[in-house]
Design a protein that fits this description.
0% of the residues lie in helices and 48% in strands. It is mainly beta. Strands 2, 4, 5, 6, 9, 10 and 11 form a seven-stranded mixed beta sheet that branches. Strands 1-3-8-7 form a four-stranded antiparallel beta sheet, with no helix packed on it.
C-alpha cells in the first residue's frame, strides 16, 4: 500500500517561510516523479511544483516561481516544498503526489492525471 504523509503546515504571518515535507512508503520513491498541489477554500485544486524522479528538473506554477522550491532526498523517501515570502493567497491545503509510473522520462508535469498517488494534505494558513 502506497502512503504519502505530508507535514509542516501551520499558521504563519505574511512574509514568513515554511518547509513542507512528504514522506512516502510502499513504493520505490527514488524512481517516481513527485509534485505538490494545493486547494484553497472554495477553489479548485491547483498545481504548485513538480520534480522529476532524478531530481534533475523542476517545474513551478507562475504564482510561486521565485518564492517556492521543490526538492527531494531519495535516501529519506521525502520530497520537500520550501516556501518563502508567503502571502495570504498561499493559504490552502497542500497535497503531495507521486507519479503514475516509475522512471518516467517526461518533463515535470502540472497535470493531476499524471499522478497516481496522493497524500491527505497539510494545512497552510498565511495571515495578513
Amino acid at each position: 500500500q502506497v502512503l504519502l504523509a505530508e507535514s509542516g503546515g501551520e499558521l504563519v504571518q505574511a512574509g514568513g517561510s515554511l518547509r513542507l515535507s512528504c514522506t512516502a512508503s510502499g513504493l520505490t520513491f527514488s524512481s517516481y516523479p513527485m509534485a505538490w498541489f494545493r486547494r484553497a477554500p472554495e477553489k479548485e485544486r491547483e498545481f504548485v511544483a513538480a520534480i522529476t524522479w532524478s531530481g534533475g528538473r523542476t517545474y513551478y506554477a507562475d504564482s510561486v516561481k521565485g518564492r517556492f522550491t521543490i526538492s527531494r532526498t531519495n535516501a529519506k523517501n521525502t520530497v520537500y516544498l520550501q516556501m518563502n515570502s508567503l502571502k495570504p493567497d498561499d493559504t490552502a491545503v497542500y497535497y503531495c503526489a507521486a507519479g503514475v509510473k516509475p522512471y518516467d522520462s517526461s518533463p515535470p508535469s502540472n497535470r493531476p492525471n499524471m499522478y497516481g498517488y496522493w497524500g491527505q494534505g497539510t494545512q497552510v494558513t498565511v495571515s495578513s
